[in-house]
Amino acid sequence: xxxxxxxxxxxPVGAYSHAVEYPxxxxxxxxxxxVGIAPDxxxxxxTAAQSEIVWANIAAILADADMRLEDIVxxxxxxxxxxxxxxYGAVRTRFxxxxxxxxxxxxxxxxxxxxxxxxxxxxAART
Length: 127
Known about the structure:
This protein is of the alpha+beta class. It has a single domain (29-126), classed as CATH 3.30.1330.40. Helix content is 24%, strand content 30%. It has helices at residues 47-64, 85-96; strands at residues 2-4, 19-21, 27-35, 72-79, 102-107, 118-126. A four-stranded mixed sheet has the order 3-6-4-5, with helices on one face. Helix 2 links the parallel strand 4 and strand 5. Helix 1 (47-64) runs parallel beside helix 2. The longest helix is centred in the middle third of the chain and has 18 residues, at 47-64. The protein starts with a strand and ends with a strand.
């Protein structure tokens, strides 16, 4: 995979790349938005707890598809409160470390259920 962060535009303002290219021969997996629902059906108490569940769910889905977090090329995250960004960001950083997939984060008025604070969808590609 090749990442693009041209010096002719502003550097990324966070832990992402402006663009990621993968070969046409790559397997591509689109993961539906994951929310903070644990395997036992409970919802995390706050944004940090829900983010932990979200990223653990994403990792489990990728593993089931014989992929890894390193294969993520695109992240789209939805938060219901801008104040939740530090909690979400800390968990994301712990899971993704130095990985720099492309990324979009949107603050929304609400998710489907009022107790949900965060939802994340990803695209992964593996050659």
